[in-house]
Design goal:
Blueprint lengths: L12 H52 L41 E3 L8 E4 L15 E2 L7
Antiparallel strand pairs: 1-2, 2-3
Length: 144
């Protein structure tokens, strides 16, 4: 009687399906947690940009003796406002950034909460909201 030898290289279809099911379960468990981190990191990036704008606004105030008006806006940090002999800018090296959701920052001076207010309306681009849609402002911490 002759012995038949089988070459056992490769994976069976069942083994491949089991690995795919395990990877799918891992993606279903880990994916939502990672996407939640993206929203939080955008909020932190907005807060960091607002802090940089605050520094530039304070430097503008040191030179000019005032903050830019609401009409001049944050663009006064890049381009010299009319009748501004003391202006020594630009106070930011590049154009005024958009928030992490590609919306412009809202600037008001005088502000309702201080000398000026800087607001990012979050992911939805409208006032108020929860989670990723929460407004990021210069007078509050992100967690408030």
């Amino acid at each position: 009687m002759q012995k038949v030898l089988y070459n056992k290289k490769g994976f069976t279809l069942i083994e491949i399906l089991i690995v795919m099911v395990i990877l799918g379960l891992l993606a279903a468990l880990v994916g939502p947690k990672m996407f939640g981190k993206v929203g939080k990191s955008k909020q932190k990036a907005a807060k960091a940009q607002i802090s940089l704008l605050e520094t530039a606004l304070d430097t503008f105030r040191l030179d000019m003796g005032r903050y830019p008006t609401s009409e001049e806006g944050l663009e006064a940090l890049r381009t010299k406002p009319a009748d501004s002999e003391k202006w020594d800018g630009p106070y930011i090296p590049k154009k005024v950034p958009l928030d992490p959701w590609s919306n412009p920052y809202e600037y008001q001076s005088p502000g309702e909460n201080g000398d000026y207010d800087i607001i990012s309306f979050g992911a939805d681009g409208t006032a108020d909201g929860e989670g990723e849609n929460k407004d990021i402002v210069n007078w509050k911490n992100i967690d408030e």
